[in-house]
Structures are given as C-alpha cells and as structure tokens.
Amino acid sequence: MAENGKKRNWFWRHKIMTVILAIIAIAVISSAAGGGNKTNSTNTKTASTPKTSTKAAVLPKIGEVARDGKFEFTVASVKCGQPSVSDTSGYVTKSAQGQYCLLALTVKNIGDKQQYFSESDQKLLNANKVEYSSDSTATLYLSNNSDSFLAQINPGNSVDGVLVYDIPKDQTPVTAELHDSAFSSGVKVNLQ
User: Distances from the Cα of 12 to the Cαs of 8, 18, 151, 163, in angstroms?
Assistant: First the structure.
C-alpha cells in the first residue's frame, strides 16, 4: 500500500507541475506575441504616426536643399526645349531625338569620406512618373561642365554642373530623382 501511495503522490505532483508549466508557457507566449491592452494601444499609435507624417511630407523645390545619403543637392534650374548642345569650341554638336532639358544643380558631400557623383544615377520624371536618364555625351559637350559627369567630391566640397536629358518634345519633367549612388533610395525634387 505504501507503494501505491508513493505512486499517487508522484502522479499528483507530476500533474500539478504540468499545469504550472502550461500556465507559464501561455504567459510567455502571450507576452512575446504582444498580448495585453497597453501594448496594443501603443502599437496602434505607432502604426498611425508614419501615415500622418507621410501626408505632411512636401518635396523640396528648385533652390531648396535635398539630401540623399552623403550628398546634399540643390537644383538651380531646369530648362527644356533645346534642340541641340555644343562643346565650348562650337565645332562638336549633338542633336536631341526629342528635346534637351538642362538640369543645373550643386552637389555637396556632407559625409566624412570622398564619394563619387555620377550623372547616370540622376533621373527626371514626367507627371505620369515615366523616368528619363541623362544623356552622357550631351552632358560632356556643355561648356565648363566637366565636374558634373563623374566627379570625386571630398567631404565639405561641392561641384556645380548641368545634366542633359533627351526627352520627347511633348513631355515636361515635373520631378528630379537624385541619388548619392546607384544603390541609394534617392530624393525627389519638385521642378514645378
């Protein structure tokens, strides 16, 4: 009989331990899953905050500073309707398939290391978000424009240049998308 009593005690202790472990496991899982009203209300506030700030976000305009990564961009102007561009000598000319749009900008390195600025990473977009790449050859032809093609910019330094885009005659660029590298997310500038 004493042996049966030991088995029963062991059985009940085992059952009680199983129930206690189950309660602890449920508490841990609930906590890890974010259970509880206080946590959920905080998550709701956090989730709604970005939507509010997204609505309030306004694109920088011509003449205003825009930043992407290690570069600070300031678009000075955009002029479209040019049928061709020439080098400083005037002997070498390149004609547009549509029209040339000239994007004048300043690029400043705000980082702590040198960085290359590449004109091929910069885009123009029309109202339908159609993307236009720069014309490297036409960009090189412009007078005093060697800095804007491919420039190594040291920290604190800046370069001025004009990028040339060949877009259809019936299109107007409304946004410039500027990048500090081919892999950056970019920053948009309102050209209107």
Answer: 6, 10, 79, 82
For residue 121, the 8-state DSSP code is G
Asked whether the beta carbons of 180 and 114 are under 8 A apart, the reply is no
Claim: this prediction has a pTM higher than 0.85:
no
3-state SS class at 55: helix
d(CA 39, CA 183): 36
pLDDT in tens, the chain (192 residues): 555 555 556 555 555 656 565 556 554 454 444 444 443 433 444 444 444 444 557 999 999 999 999 999 999 999 999 999 998 877 889 999 999 999 999 999 999 999 999 999 999 999 999 999 999 889 888 755 556 667 899 999 999 999 999 999 999 999 999 999 999 999 999 999
CA 114, distance to chain mean position in Å, is 20
What is the b/e burial string over 75-88, where b = at least 16 CB atoms within 10 angstroms of the residue's CB?
Answer: beebebeeeebeee
